[in-house]
Amino acid sequence: MTLVAGTTVRLKLAREVSPYGYFMTDGETEVLMHYTELVGHRPQIGQFYDVFLFFDSEDRIAATMKKPLIQLGQVARLAVADIHPKIGAFLEMGLGRQLLLPLSEQPELKELRPKRGDEVHVILAHDKIGRLVAKVAFEEELAELAFHAPQSWHNTWVEGWVTKTLKIGSFVMIDGGVLGFGAYGFIPADDRTRLLRLGERVKARVTFVREDGRVNLSMNQRKEVGRLEDSERILKFLKDRPNGAMPYSDETEADIIKQKFGISKGAFKRAIGKLMREGLVTQEGNWTKLTEQAAAAEQQGPPAGTGSGE
């Protein structure tokens, strides 16, 4: 038998060597199980035990009775316990020790990399010199674990974890299933209210359930709901501006609208259109401003009798 780090094997307890621990054997090779790696009752010489193999602090293969959250070749979602800016993220793997997710496995843009508390879907693997390391799980591996979303999910809100984030959008593993692997989803860039980190927790609305069981997602409300909220936000913004005017209009570039109001240009135009139909704003070139009607209503304040009362 070849002893491979990252796997669980059944080994015989051969002997005790104080003050270190116990040597386990497959009949050919021995590995040390430190006293700190024991779980439960004192083990007995000659008995067989299931142990997980890993590398200790001196890069020697060792054994533990503790149960890891991930095995070699498996996919699991692991929490980010610590960050090293020059090495990568360290993930909690359930052994009282951490697993490295190297920078090479993370997005190039620093703001898209996971932070403490985020949870990343990874595969346990070996690096070039045989040490245990985490690699980001690809779409192919995750799709095999996901279930098909039902049509009843349409226009419902779901939550999940970002598995990949690109310029065109972000991929999300939605909560669900016995092991936490739900349906697989995609948030197009125009439906993100902000950039999303790898491993970030996100809440989004299902806009379309595809034939293959995957879903399209949006972080925005439905158009009719979003239009009302967006128009109220823009109206308040104008009322707080000097002279009730702002240098943003239908002609303003989409990225500026996104940065200023956190919505797409399409959503901005729908909200402005609603306010114009209600006679509350007008547009002149690159400017949008309150109408005299809206400005007068703002100056008059709420009708009499709407105060807090006696």
UniProtKB/TrEMBL annotation:
Cross-referenced InterPro entries: CvfB_fam, CvfB_S1_2nd, CvfB_S1_3rd, CvfB_S1_st, CvfB_WH, NA-bd_OB-fold, S1_domain, WH-like_DNA-bd_sf
- Gene3D superfamilies hit by this protein: Nucleic acid-binding proteins, Winged helix-like DNA-binding domain superfamily/Winged helix DNA-binding domain
A Pfam family annotated for this UniProt entry: CvfB_1st
Q: Which SMART domains match?
A: S1
Instruction: State any single GO MF term.
Output: nucleic acid binding
Task: Tell me where in this chain the S1 motif domain is found.
Answer: 155-220
Q: Which family does it belong to?
A: Belongs to the CvfB family.
User: What is the recorded name of this protein?
Assistant: RNA-binding protein
**What is the organism lineage in this UniProt record?**
Bacteria, Bacillati, Bacillota, Bacilli, Bacillales
